[in-house]
């Protein structure tokens, strides 16, 4: 009995406040609750690599690196489309990434090749190449760190792991020159 009175009073108050019939009110106020977020956040966008234990970080870099190598990541060109999934490249067109410790250099130098691209004559395993690798500085630091870590540690390569801060440094330096 008391509840019914209270409900009736509430309905009256709501009705008066809105100046509309009481029944339409609850439907209107319930709507925003079911609204879904418009854009899904990218899972790779925010990852705190510095806070991860070493083993977990390397595993993340290798996994993400393989994806970027084979797909181009978020807006790049797949490295595999030129250097092949085997890292062996294509004779006369695209140089191999296998066994190229000196050409890759340290992480900052290696990141610079991806950030700035590369052109001009170079010699790889005694074979001359004179092509053009597109600059892919549009990729986020994490993806570039991942893809170079993957290339440095695949197909028998074992040239060490890289970090997003290596990529950040490379962005502030001139394009590396290879011979
Ligand atoms: C459109 C083709 C193309 C794509 C995509 C490409 N490269 Fe290259 N890359 C080249 C060419 C061509 C050269 C040699 C450039 C020259 O002759 O000066 C080269 C050179 C290199 C070199 C130095 C030479 C060597 O043999 O080690 C590295 C390292 C390298 N690329 C890594 C990468 C990575 C990592 C990616 C993916 C992020 C990538 N490239 C994507 C074409 C490509």
Outline the fold blueprint.
Layout: H1 2-18, H2 25-30, H3 54-71, H4 80-83, H5 101-104, H6 107-116, E1 118-119, E2 122-124, E3 127-129, E4 132-133, H7 141-152, H8 164-171
Antiparallel strand pairs: 1-4, 2-3
This protein binds heme C (HEC).
Heme C binds next to helix 4, helix 5, helix 6, strand 1 and strand 2.
Write a short abstract of this structure.
The chain has helices at residues 2-18, 25-30, 54-71, 80-83, 101-104, 107-116, 141-152, 164-171; strands at 118-119, 122-124, 127-129, 132-133.
Oligomer class: single chain
The helix/strand class is mainly alpha
The average pLDDT is 86
CATH architecture of the largest domain, by name, is Orthogonal Bundle
Q: Under the CATH scheme, which class of the largest domain?
A: Mainly Alpha
Residue stretches low in confidence (pLDDT < 50, at least 5 long) are 10-16
| Tally of domains | 2
Radius of gyration: 28 Å
The secondary-structure element order is HHHHHHEEEEHH
Give the distance, in angstroms, between the N- and C-terminal Cα atoms.
92 Å
Largest sheet: 2 strands, antiparallel
Residue fraction in strands: 5-15%
Going across the biggest sheet, name each strand in turn: 1-4
The count of β-strands is 4
The proportion of residues forming helix, as a percent range, comes to 40-55%
The hetero compounds bound to this protein are:
heme C
Q: Find the CATH superfamily of the largest domain.
A: Cytochrome c-like domain
């Amino acid at each position: 009995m008391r509840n019914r009175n209270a409900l009736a009073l509430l309905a009256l108050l709501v009705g008066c406040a809105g100046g509309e019939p009481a029944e339409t009110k609850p439907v209107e106020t319930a709507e925003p609750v079911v609204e879904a977020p418009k854009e899904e956040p990218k899972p790779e966008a925010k990852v705190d690599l510095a806070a991860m234990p070493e083993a977990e970080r390397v595993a993340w870099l290798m996994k993400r690196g393989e994806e970027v190598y084979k797909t181009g990541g978020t807006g790049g060109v797949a490295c595999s489309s030129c250097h092949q999934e085997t890292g062996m490249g294509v004779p006369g067109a695209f140089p191999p990434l296998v066994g190229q410790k000196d050409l890759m250099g340290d992480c900052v130098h290696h990141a610079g090749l991806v950030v700035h691209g590369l052109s001009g004559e170079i010699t790889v395993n005694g074979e001359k190449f004179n092509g053009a690798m597109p600059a892919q500085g549009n990729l986020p630091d994490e993806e570039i760190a991942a893809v170079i870590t993957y290339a440095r540690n695949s197909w028998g390569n074992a040239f060490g792991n890289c970090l997003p801060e290596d990529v950040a440094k490379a962005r502030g330096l001139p394009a590396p020159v290879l011979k």
